[in-house]
Design goal:
CATH class of the largest domain: Alpha Beta
Radius of gyration: 24 Å
CATH topology of the largest domain: Rossmann fold
Shape: elongated
Helix content: 40-55%
CATH architecture of the largest domain: 3-Layer(aba) Sandwich
Number of strands: 14
Number of domains: 3
Largest sheet: 6 strands, parallel
Distance between the termini: 62 Å
Strand content: 5-15%
Strand order of the largest sheet: 3-2-1-4-5-6
Length: 440
């Protein structure tokens, strides 16, 4: 079986590589010649645990190839996946110019039956626009080539995307025809041998499922952050509250860990896009508007704790920051809370020395010399007035506190992920701030 995956970003590269892992011949396509050249040289543009190993193996086997030629990639292919970016437009809606551009290229190049699959996260109704774009190009060519459009949203978590793809909880596919369903079922059969289902549905429902899923998870995060802030005010401990509500099977214990707000490539963009879709239809998604508002505010919560502790005077203060990426096991800095905190600190006259196991290069690309970059976590804290923990990388969980005490100016920690024990911090005589934790 041969397929094409257009777009070699996070979703496209993970998807193409994982399909190749099951024996499918995959051609990954991108218009960026430099990116394709690098991929052909063994240089991967993203960091994702486990990706490099299966990428190398399948390139060596000849099952995974990279090209800028979309016509060549879809020749004799049974399906083509559109996995290009859908960045937010100025009004918050998803920009479909790349998706529809690929659809037009497919219409210009296809010579045999294809299932055209939208893998990118796209607003409800996009598949019909993809279909119209392909039909328009076929009409210009005077061709009547059969094809079907399908929707197959991804549910990958950065940091565990390979496992998510190879052993999915469920696979959602929206189709309009039995032939398309047959192709997709054959393609995905190796991934559901663990008993998890393929959920076939209509295309519009499939498109809505992706946005609804991410928006629900974002809602849980903003909810627990709001509760944590109230816990700070009333003197409750959000960790106890979290365990209390998480033991209720109707709620569950996932995505109810308080912190500095959500970031990344999906939640912020998808919440905005769903709000915009509803607004265009004359309906207001008030809950999601509140979710977004809470998240913006949460990214500043740690800064406000710092500002209050120093009585509003941060000029000349030096802060060590552990963690920059929006979450562990990724170098993704999109919508990362660390960027908001850094901007606020610098604006207040402070300096920041940061360390992240993976995201240093990406952060430097974004911030340049606005901050100082340390070679490891302990270099970052030398002569710092306080340590700020922003991303809960595993190597930060059990630091050498004796070393910290020698390097820090003050035994002062602002923990944005609640990874340290308040009782231990008290025993070690640290001044310790967390998110919604009861500090005795």
């Amino acid at each position: 079986m041969k397929i094409s995956v257009v777009g070699t970003g996070y979703v496209g590269l993970v998807s193409g590589t994982c399909f190749a892992e099951t024996g499918v011949n995959v051609a990954c396509v991108d218009i960026d010649q430099k990116k394709i050249d690098n991929l052909n040289k063994g240089i991967i543009p993203i960091y994702e645990p486990g990706l490099e190993d299966i990428y190398k193996k399948n390139v060596e086997k000849g099952r995974l190839v990279f090209t800028t030629n979309i016509a060549e990639s879809i020749d004799e292919a049974e399906a083509v996946f559109i996995a290009v970016g859908t960045p937010p437009d100025e009004d918050g809606s998803a920009d479909l110019k790349y998706v529809l551009g690929v659809a037009r290229d497919i219409g210009k190049s296809m010579n045999n039956y294809l299932v055209v699959v939208t893998k990118s996260t796209v607003p409800v109704g996009t598949s019909s626009k993809v279909k119209d774009a392909i039909l328009d190009e076929l009409k210009k060519r005077g061709k009547d080539i059969p094809f079907d459009v399908a929707s197959n949203p991804e549910f990958l978590k950065e940091g565990s995307a390979i496992a998510d793809f190879l052993k999915p909880d469920r696979i959602v596919i929206g189709t309009e025809s039995a032939q398309a369903q047959k192709v997709m079922k054959r393609l995905y059969k190796p991934f559901v041998l663990n008993g998890h289902p393929i959920l076939f549905m209509d295309i519009i429902s499939s498109e809505m499922t992706k946005y609804a899923a991410n928006s629900m998870l974002a809602t849980k995060i903003s909810f627990i952050n709001d509760i944590a802030n109230l816990c700070d005010i009333v003197g409750a401990d959000v960790d106890n509250v979290r365990r209390g509500i998480g033991s209720d099977a109707r709620i569950g214990n996932k995505f109810i860990y308080p912190g500095t707000g959500y970031g990344g490539s999906c939640f912020p963009k998808d919440v905005q896009a769903l709000i915009r879709t509803a607004d265009e239809k004359g309906y207001s998604l008030d809950i999601l508007k509140a979710v977004e508002s809470v998240n913006y505010r949460q990214k500043e919560v740690l800064f406000h704790k710092i500002h209050k502790h120093f009585n509003g005077d941060l000029k000349g203060k030096r802060f060590a920051m552990w963690g920059l990426s929006f979450k562990p096991k990724t170098d993704d800095m999109r919508e990362a809370p660390s960027l908001v905190i850094i901007d606020k600190l610098i604006e207040a006259g402070a300096t920041v020395v940061a360390y992240d196991p993976v995201a240093m290069k990406e952060t430097e690309r974004i911030l340049g010399d606005k901050i100082t970059y340390a070679k490891d976590e302990y270099e970052a804290v030398i002569d710092a007035d306080a340590l700020i923990l922003v991303t809960e990388w595993s190597e930060f969980r059990v630091p050498n506190f004796r070393v910290l005490e020698k390097l820090l100016k003050n035994k002062l920690i602002f923990d944005g992920r609640n990874i340290y024990d308040p009782e231990e911090m008290k025993e070690r005589s640290y001044t310790y701030y967390a998110i919604g934790r009861k500090i005795k």
